[in-house]
Design goal:
Helices cover 29% and strands 28% of the residues. The chain is built from 8 helices and 14 strands. The structure holds S-adenosylmethionine. S-adenosylmethionine binds next to helix 4, helix 5, strand 9 and helix 7. The site of S-adenosylmethionine has 22 residues, from helix 4, helix 5, strand 9 and helix 7.
Length: 275
């Protein structure tokens, strides 16, 4: 690993084959990364935040990632400064996802979703699995719908569903930090009363929703698939799945039919409709 020697938070970048993105992401997380982002590049590059250079080196030592990893920033507080440089982006045809500190110009007619990802909560809107889900929600959400978001992270999809016309969204996450972030973000966007955030998974849902959104990696997707199918929603937007894993998810969602299947940067999005 090459880089500078200062202590403090560091970002580590690792390039890999498209088919290895999930494995390398998991390896980074299992070896102590606080969060992993897949950069939109060819070949794919993964950027992971570690609390310190020493921590990153210790975590990666002995793994086959060490030789491929490059520390891109190493100054104390650099992780925070990188976060602050993120200005958000326009997504799909109607949305503009931005952090509270962004002063990027606003385009007229776009609905702003302000998301503070905190330190480690997934769902800033930079990951392609999130942006693909948002794009599909623009098409799926109907006026007055009730939507369920399983694995809400920052709450971004649940908040978007309400901003796009849903009457209410149930936002679920097993992680207490995510639950806190999602509540805060819902309030920040003025939709707190319409986004019910709870800690847990599909077992928390006692109603029949109109729609479901779920951005989880394959193992978790398959773990919740039966419970989500049994909810009987009209539509479902699923992301977090790698391109080559799509068939497994389609099988798990029988008898739902695929309305749309898209791929970007090795990731896929699936929109299911009830037959
Ligand atoms: C990839 S993030 C998605 C965040 C956000 N929905 C987005 O699209 O950017 C997945 C989230 O799901 C949560 N999670 C994982 N397994 C879960 C499960 N079985 N039930 C509920 N949440 C789960 C994780 O804690 C994490 O916050």
């Amino acid at each position: 690993m090459t880089g500078v020697v200062d202590e403090g938070p560091v970002l580590v970048e690792v390039s890999c084959k498209p088919s290895d993105v999930e494995l390398v992401s998991l390896a980074l997380l299992e070896n102590g990364a606080g969060a992993v982002e897949v950069l939109d590049s060819v070949p794919p590059r993964l950027r992971a935040g570690f609390p310190s250079r020493a921590g990153a080196e210790l975590a990666l030592r002995g793994t086959d990632l060490a030789d491929r990893a490059i520390i891109v920033t190493g100054h104390p507080g650099e992780g925070e400064r990188w976060r602050e440089r993120w200005a958000g982006a326009e997504v799909g045809r109607h949305l503009d996802v931005r952090p509270p500190w962004s002063n990027r110009a606003r385009s007229p007619g776009r609905t702003v979703i302000e998301i503070d990802p905190g330190r480690d909560v997934f769902g800033s809107g930079t990951h392609v699995s999130t942006t693909m889900a948002l794009e599909e929600l623009e098409v799926c959400v109907g006026e007055g719908d009730v939507a369920v978001d399983v694995g809400t992270g920052t709450g971004i999809l649940a908040i978007a569903a309400v901003q796009l016309g849903a009457e209410r969204a149930f936002a679920l996450d097993i992680d207490a930090v995510a639950v806190h972030a999602a509540r805060r973000n819902a309030r920040r966007n003025g939709v707190g009363p319409r986004v019910n955030v709870a800690r847990g998974g599909p077992e928390c849902v006692r109603i029949r929703p109109d729609g479901i959104m779920c951005n989880l990696l394959l193992g978790d997707q398959l773990g919740v698939a039966r419970a989500l199918v049994d909810m009987g929603a009209r539509w479902a937007v699923l992301t977090g799945i790698l391109e080559y894993q799509t068939a497994d998810v389609v099988t798990a969602w029988a008898p739902y039919e695929v309305r749309t299947a898209r791929c970007r940067g090795g990731w896929s999005s699936l929109v299911f409709v009830r037959p």
